[in-house]
Design brief:
Layout: E1 10-15, H1 16-30, E2 34-38, H2 40-44, H3 48-57, E3 62-65, H4 68-76, E4 82-85, H5 95-99, E5 103-106, H6 109-122, E6 126-131, H7 146-158, E7 162-168, H8 181-198, E8 205-209, H9 211-216, E9 224-227, H10 240-243, E10 252-257, E11 260-264, E12 269-270, E13 276-277, E14 282-287, E15 304-307, E16 310-315, E17 323-328, E18 338-342, H11 352-358, H12 363-368, E19 376-379
Helix pairs in contact: 1-3, 6-7
Length: 386
């Protein structure tokens, strides 16, 4: 348990049993490709270490993170499995990663040189995944620089400084079935893999697919798939989990207890700016979570919370630490009564997708921005989750 809010007041419940089951379902779906579960950004807000442990318990061979610090935090927490880190700056010391047997992505000759230097310092071979930009125009080597990167990698392999374990890329629009970028990126990826082979590299792992591609684009699976959002039981886009024939379960439920309950007269203005006023007498409840905790301010006057199996709408602006919800009349609501901000949806509560809709964003942003004050409370822990 972590966080600076008392868990009796508000907490994000993390269902590790659901997470393990999701990982197993996705692994079976992706087989014979191996599964990497992406646990960057504090496990998309769910708690990186707890999710990493649960993934390993579910038999997941690979974990993926963005930053070296995330990778090293996993090693410090005792994770000893295959782990890839892919985002670092020019000044970062890569030696601790090589020493900790973390696989590292490289997209430039300079990054390869840094890895060769790091390998020399720790007297260990670096494990490298060469990244090609196949059309996302984010990171990854350009097509023009790819042959030189491959040549440099071959030379580094020949002197025993590193081993090229993988060639990889990332898709721009796998969550939009039929998007023209997908076949173009597949083609560019296969050209890059062939060029790597022709230069003498023998990468065991080609990987391209994220959750959406893992779910509905089997032609992108290759040797390994990198799954983030789906492992947390959330759809990368509406309907993809169902199209894959999977029944994944949302892992996070955000609960809070009403911190205050009061009667409002008709005409009372609510929250900053009085953007909502009661048109009739009603009872409002105070939810002790705000935009500092990840409740989107964009959902002011749009969001809803689950209350007694139904919904209570957000009234007025979402504040930094609190939100006012309308409990209606005749409810005799009490301070301390529970509301469900979001959850799997089985008890009438909104889902992460509902909040994403009310906030003009995606579910990824809703869960990964649940703030550090909110305690993560794990349920369904396996033997090693503690
Ligand atoms: C390089 C890379 N691979 C895989 C993923 C996982 O994506 P998703 O959460 O859509 O499965 C991410 C997440 O953004 C990523 O940055």
């Amino acid at each position: 348990m972590s966080g600076l809010i008392d868990p009796a007041t508000a907490r994000a419940e993390i269902d590790l049993a659901a997470f393990r089951a999701n990982a197993q379902g996705l692994a079976a779906h992706a087989a014979p490709a191996q599964l990497m579960v992406v646990v960057k950004a504090d496990g998309y807000g769910h708690g990186m270490v707890a999710c990493a442990r649960a993934a390993r318990e579910a038999g997941v061979p690979w974990l993926g993170v963005a930053t070296p610090a995330e990778a090293l935090a996993l090693r410090e927490a005792g994770d000893a499995g295959r782990l890839l880190a892919w985002l670092y700056g020019v000044e970062e010391d890569l030696a601790p990663l090589v020493a900790a047997e973390v696989d590292v992505s490289a997209q430039t000759v300079e990054q390869l040189s840094d890895l060769v230097a790091a390998a020399a310092v720790v007297e260990q071979r670096a494990r490298v995944h060469l990244k090609i930009d196949t059309g996302l125009s984010r990171n990854g080597a350009t097509v023009a620089s790819w042959p030189e990167l491959c040549r440099a990698a071959v030379e580094a392999e020949q002197v025993g400084a590193l081993e090229v374990v993988g060639v990889w890329s990332h898709l721009a629009a796998a969550d939009e079935p039929g998007h023209p970028s997908v076949p173009l990126q597949i083609e560019a990826f296969e050209r890059a893999c062939a060029a790597a082979e022709a230069s003498g590299l023998r990468p065991a792992l080609r990987h391209l697919a994220n959750s959406a591609a893992t779910l509905v684009l089997p032609e992108t699976h290759y040797d390994l798939v990198r799954v983030g959002i789906a492992a947390y039981g959330l759809d990368p886009a509406p309907g993809l989990i169902a199209r894959a024939g999977l029944a994944l379960r949302p892992v996070m439920t955000l609960r809070a207890s009403l911190a205050a309950v009061k009667e409002l007269d008709a005409g009372a203005g609510v929250s900053y700016g009085w953007t909502w006023s009661a048109t009739a007498p009603t009872t409002v409840g105070l939810v002790p979570l705000g935009y500092a905790d990840g409740i989107p301010r964009h959902a002011s006057n749009r969001g809803q919370v689950g209350f007694r199996g139904g919904r209570a709408p957000v009234r007025g602006r979402v504040c930094m630490d609190q939100v006012v919800v309308d409990l209606g009349t005749g409810t005799a609501a009490a301070v301390g009564e529970e509301v469900l901000v979001f959850g799997p949806g089985g008890s009438g509560e909104p889902t992460v997708a509902d909040w994403a809709g009310w906030s003009d964003t995606i579910g990824y942003e809703i869960v990964s921005r649940i703030g550090s004050r909110v305690p993560r409370y794990q349920v369904g822990a396996g033997p090693a989750d503690g």
